[in-house]
Design goal:
The complex is a heterodimer of chains A (208) and B (239). Chain A is an alpha/beta fold. Chain A is built from 7 helices and 8 strands. Chain A is elongated. Chain B has 239 residues and is an alpha/beta fold. The chains are: A alpha/beta (208), B alpha/beta (239).
């Protein structure tokens, strides 16, 4: 008679633990991994070769949104989507693009310049907090272009903005993903159209 | 010949069929009232023509939603609805899907880069990549749709309760919906604005609740879409 009782006890214990874990996980932050495809820009290619360094800070970029009480609410992982975006945009802008890990690799590749984008700031506005019917995302970037010797060519700030309206049956995750994808497209459009107009870049291109 | 008394099963059958008939009548009456009330939508369409129009069979139109405003953006579902309706029926027009066009033209028709005036379109067409893509699609007209649907005047209240024996709602709610959209037609050949069509649909929606809430919705956006599409089709065809 002891054996079945123990089994029931064990089952109850396991059920209780599972319920507790479920409750604890329900109180934790939800995770949003940004997913989206980015079209190739229709721009004229510049006759230059560029090496791209994606630093770990960009590759693993994540933003944590906190509730008004300071509790971790939503974790947004957008590092990989940024890399997919630059991988779609850069080959359309330059004659040759190579991905490298270090400056030494860039020297070996005999490129004209090394490009290293950095995310400086990420902001999110949720309808529940702003009382507006849109999800909004702002991203501030620091774009750095250096020679293979490490000399500075240009260092400029780009900001991008994206919004997506709330809709019936659209989850918070979908809303955030939608707004971030719009912001990433905004970055791609302003970067590809304004690159050669950055004064330092323009001057460097003239001397290339 | 004496009538055979009805057995219990037959009596139940009669009762059931009477109940079913009553239910059908009730449901029918509800739908009739609903359709009468839901039809309480008025739509006004204004057209302002600034140039001659006409379209060949190998030419097409693209309908794009304006998304520059900070407090709203034109619903892509509405833009798709207008496009679908323009492609149907008599004098149907070939319409390029909005997202396909924007992706194909990337980055020239994004919210921050899209041309706001025909002068901007002229500058844009000077770019070979843009002009070639427009030519590939055979785009003759770009239609910019701008607007949104607003809900106002919410009144009434509904309360719902759930208990061990069941649940239900009781009350009444009503609100007004107003869909206001305008469409500017740009001729890609002449690089001019050839006209503007405005569609404004208003209607009152009701939500009576007697155990179950029955939404009687004014289909303002659907009506605005339908009327705008018909008017646009005639406008582009030059009739």
């Amino acid at each position: 008679m002891n054996q079945p009782n123990m089994t029931i006890q064990a089952l109850l214990y396991r059920f209780g633990t599972a319920l507790l874990l479920l409750l604890v996980s329900a109180c934790g932050a939800s995770n949003v991994v940004i997913e989206g495809n980015f079209p190739t820009p229709n721009v004229n290619k510049m006759p230059m070769s560029v090496a791209v360094i994606y630093e770990d800070a960009l590759r693993e970029f994540a933003y944590m949104e906190y509730s008004e009480t300071g509790r971790e609410e939503i974790n947004i992982e957008s590092g990989q989507s940024h890399i997919r975006l630059f991988d779609a945009v850069l080959p359309a802008m330059f004659d040759r693009v190579v991905n490298v890990d270090t400056m030494e690799d860039a020297v070996e590749q005999k490129v004209d310049a090394v490009f290293a984008p950095v995310i400086e700031e990420f902001q999110l506005a949720l309808p529940a907090k702003t009382k507006l019917d849109v999800y909004e995302v702002w991203i501030k970037y620091n774009m750095r272009l250096v020679t293979t010797e490490g000399d500075y060519i240009a260092d400029w700030v780009l900001t991008s903005y994206g919004k997506t309206p709330t809709a019936t049956f659209r989850s918070v995750q979908d809303g955030i993903n939608g707004a971030t994808v719009v912001a990433l497209r905004d970055l791609a459009s302003s970067f590809s159209l304004s690159f050669s107009q950055v004064p330092e870049v323009s001057e460097w291109l003239r001397n290339l | 010949m004496a009538k055979k008394p009805l057995d219990r099963g037959t009596r139940e059958g009669i009762n059931m069929s009477t109940i079913k008939k009553t239910q059908i009548v009730n449901v029918g009456a509800t739908f009739f009232i609903a359709s009468l009330l839901a039809a309480c939508t008025s739509t006004t369409v204004d057209e302002f023509r600034q140039g001659e129009t006409g379209i060949e069979t190998d030419e097409s139109v693209v309908i794009l939603g304006r998304r520059q405003a900070s407090d709203y953006e034109t619903d892509s579902g509405f833009v798709e609805c207008v496009g679908d309706r323009m492609q149907r029926g008599e004098n149907a027009i070939s319409v390029v899907p909005e997202q396909e066009f924007i992706d194909s033209m990337f980055p020239w028709f994004e919210p921050r880069t899209a041309p706001l005036r025909t002068r901007d379109l002229e500058q844009l067409m000077a770019e070979d990549v843009v002009a070639n893509k427009m030519n590939d699609y055979g785009i003759r007209y770009i239609v910019w749709v701008d607007g949104f649907t607003e809900t106002s005047g919410r009144t009434g209240s509904i309360s719902c309760t759930v208990g061990p024996a069941g649940g239900g709602c009781f009350g009444f709610g009503t609100w007004e919906d107003d869909a206001n959209f305008n469409a500017r037609v740009w001729d890609v050949d002449s690089l001019k604005n050839v006209g503007t069509i405005n569609a404004d649909a208003t209607g009152q929606s009701y939500l009576p609740a007697l155990v179950i809430p029955i939404p009687l919705l004014a289909r303002v956006e659907a009506n605005a879409c339908s009327r705008l599409a018909i008017q646009l089709k005639d406008f582009v065809n030059g009739s």
